Amino acid sequence: MEQTAVLEHFDVEKIRQDFPILTRKVNGKPLVYLDNGATTQKPKQVIDAIVEYYTQLNSNVHRGVHYLSQLATDAFEVTRRKLRPFINAAHEHEIILTKGTTEGINLVASCYGKAYVKAGDEIIISAMEHHSNIVPWQMLCEERGATLRVVPINDAGELDMEAYRAALNDRTKMVAVTYVSNALGTVNPVGEIIRQAHAAGAPVLLDAAQAVQHLPIDVQALDVDFLVFSGHKMYGPTGIGVLYGKEKWLDAMPPYQGGGEMIKDVAFEKTTYNELPFKYEAGTPNIEAGICLAHAVDYLETAGLNRIAQHERELLAYAGGRLLEIPELRIIGTAQEKSSVVSFLLGGIHPYDVGVILDKLGIAVRTGHHCTQPLMERYGIPGTVRASIAMYNTKEDIDALVAGVQKAAEMLA
Amino acid sequence: MTINEIQEELIEDFAFFDDWMAKYEYLIQLGKELPLIDDQYKTDEYLIKGCQSKVWLHADHQRGKVLFTADSDAIITKGLVALMIKVLSGHSPAEIADSELYFIDQIGLKEHLSPTRANGLLSMVKQMKLYALALQAKGR
Ligand SMILES: Cc1ncc(COP(=O)(O)O)c(C=O)c1O
């Protein structure tokens, strides 16, 4: 009962007013934005902060003694301070600011790999990973003579936990899996995945690119070793992301890139590295995005992740039901636990064709393989049409999508 | 008809469509009517890598003219491919190599020719011209 009472406070119309782009037209039609898995739109709080940054603060961070540099540095560090409780990290210095999810994964593959992965070792990923969580591990395995093991999925798009357990062994050096699948929407049983990996002595990296904006995350409760996500998919700016790592790993691993900021002392004989988090933040960061990400965190917290999750869950159920009214429409990814994504195919029609017609109707979806080619291969399909939901989406958006798909079905039949 | 005469004719045809839907319905129709490509050419060797939809293209040289056949797994792409074939097929290698394809822009389908568009159409046009150039070189 309490849940419904809480939900009543989630005023989607009021939220929509914070997103200026939602009032624009595309191809003469009101924009229906359902490509949130690719990137979300930004609330005016974030947009205003970007303007404010360049009109009031612009300066390099962590270096100057001058006033503006201090202001910019403080603002930049506010983001780290807000991100800590946002994911409930134990320490602020466990929050490394990166360019995004991809860089976070590459950083861990490279630095953890250098320290811990040898010939004969094994890395476990899943069949539903984004290319960003496949290729860095493949590169590491190639470099080190290690083996990449892939946990299969069932037809619904759920991980085969039996196969996962069987794959874990004392050669397993890392388990890297996605929290929420960007192509199917599956929410993986990450608590269980982490417990089992730890029992086998392996750390876990969670790709939370499609999770942080949809559900509350507590890295300590999960006991996850590394967690990565992108600012641009959580209503924040592009070019900034987060790598959370347990202090013990971040201390033990070598730095990623060399340069300014990451050093304590540089001499030609020997350079000593800066402390956490700066050890992993070489060079001038994306200051604007770093500062403005704090406003996206604020925005998510004000809206409330539990309320967002419930609103999106209702929309997803509504979308699934309505889409299945369309003859010959088939949903790809029917896991018990799903979040925010509905991927589908319309008979034998190519997803690209459906995407073109929807675009003409002002409806933005993604078509193609969603950077998960091995997953599409697993289903034997060239790709899907993917509608992905954000907190500002409404039943009207879903109705527009359904009408659009019906129109596409008529035209393309 | 010359390549440019065909382009002019297409521009006139498309002027009759007063909304996008009619235009796309026509494209889809063209896609459906495109003569089938011989199955032996629907292999990787003849595949033009577009990001999302596949396009297969084959060129034949007969009595000084290049004859194109093609297919795609997406029907709208196939319609666009059919347009290209209408314009370029049946001309000499030199005419094809030197042609300037302005009709796409004028019939309001420019977005499909953008290099960032993931349908492979631009690569297809390049490939058609490359075939023509290769045949031209051989003919000398
Ligand atoms: C699950 C998942 N992982 C990784 C990425 C890569 O994120 P980014 O391009 O922001 O680095 C994405 C984005 O599409 C994603 O959905």
TrEMBL record, chain A:
One of its GO terms (molecular function) is lyase activity. It catalyses: (sulfur carrier)-H + L-cysteine = (sulfur carrier)-SH + L-alanine. Keywords: Lyase, Pyridoxal phosphate, Transferase. CDD domains: SufS_like. One of its GO terms (biological process) is cysteine metabolic process. Its cofactor is pyridoxal 5'-phosphate. Gene3D superfamilies: Aspartate Aminotransferase, domain 1, Type I PLP-dependent aspartate aminotransferase-like (Major domain). Residues 32-401 form the Aminotransferase class V domain. It comes from the Bacteria. Its EC number is 2.8.1.7. It holds the Pfam family Aminotran_5. PANTHER family: CYSTEINE DESULFURASE, CYSTEINE DESULFURASE 1, CHLOROPLASTIC. Belongs to the class-V pyridoxal-phosphate-dependent aminotransferase family. Csd subfamily. Catalyzes the removal of elemental sulfur and selenium atoms from L-cysteine, L-cystine, L-selenocysteine, and L-selenocystine to produce L-alanine. This is Cysteine desulfurase.
From TrEMBL, chain B:
Residues 11-129 form the Fe-S metabolism associated domain. Signal peptide: none annotated. Belongs to the SufE family. This is Cysteine desulfuration protein SufE. It comes from Parapedobacter composti. The lineage of its organism: Bacteria, Pseudomonadati, Bacteroidota, Sphingobacteriia, Sphingobacteriales.
